[in-house]
Amino acid sequence: MSAEQTPLSIDVTMPREDVALVVVKGFLDVDTATELHHHLANQVHHGRRHLLLDLSAVPFMDSSGINIILRAYKETRQVEGSVGLIAPAPAVRRILDLTGVSLTVPSFASVDEALTGTSDTLSRP
Questions:
Q1: Closest C-alpha to 86, from 5, 32, 15, 30
Q2: Domains in the chain, number
Q3: How far apart are the first and last CA of the chain?
Q4: Is residue 116 part of a domain?
Q5: How many Cβ atoms are within 10 Å of 70's Cβ, its own excluded?
Q6: 56 alpha carbon, distance to own chain's centre
């Protein structure tokens, strides 16, 4: 990691009992992706079926970050949960679109919109 990069910062809150809001700040790459995975796996382990990842302060993400998002998606689907991305930064949005991740994992403009989307997911048969 170069001196110019921001170290990864992860803050987790629970807006609802079954939802973890994970605010990620900094570069999400091969050096930091494992840390994010540990946070996400811990939330699923503790019964949070829905993970909301706020990526608005992530200026760069490589394939390691994409793999973590897809892995979290797979793990939450096994417990009838979901993953949602909140306000991905433009460079990250581009990567998500180019790789097709945005076709699988929904993005939301805000936490409130994501929580509404999560509620809709829960009410589907």
A1: 15
A2: 1
A3: 45
A4: yes
A5: 15
A6: 11
pLDDT in tens, 37-51: 999 999 999 999 999
* Domain extent for 94: 9-123
Residue 23 CB coordination number (10 Å): 18
Residue 78 lies in a domain: yes
CA-to-CA distance for 104 and 114, rounded, in angstroms? 15
Entry pTM: 0.88
Q: Which two tokens stand for residue 11?
A: 């803050």
DSSP collapsed to 3 states, 41-99: HHHHHCCCCEEEEEEEECCCECHHHHHHHHHHHHHHHCCCCEEEEECCCHHHHHHHHHH
Query: CA nearest 27: which of 16, 37, 36?
Result: 36
Query: pLDDT tens digits for 94-103?
Result: 999 999 999 9
Residue 1 falls within a domain, yes or no?
A: no
Domain membership flag for residue 85: yes
Q: What is the CATH number of the domain that holds 107?
A: 3.30.750.24
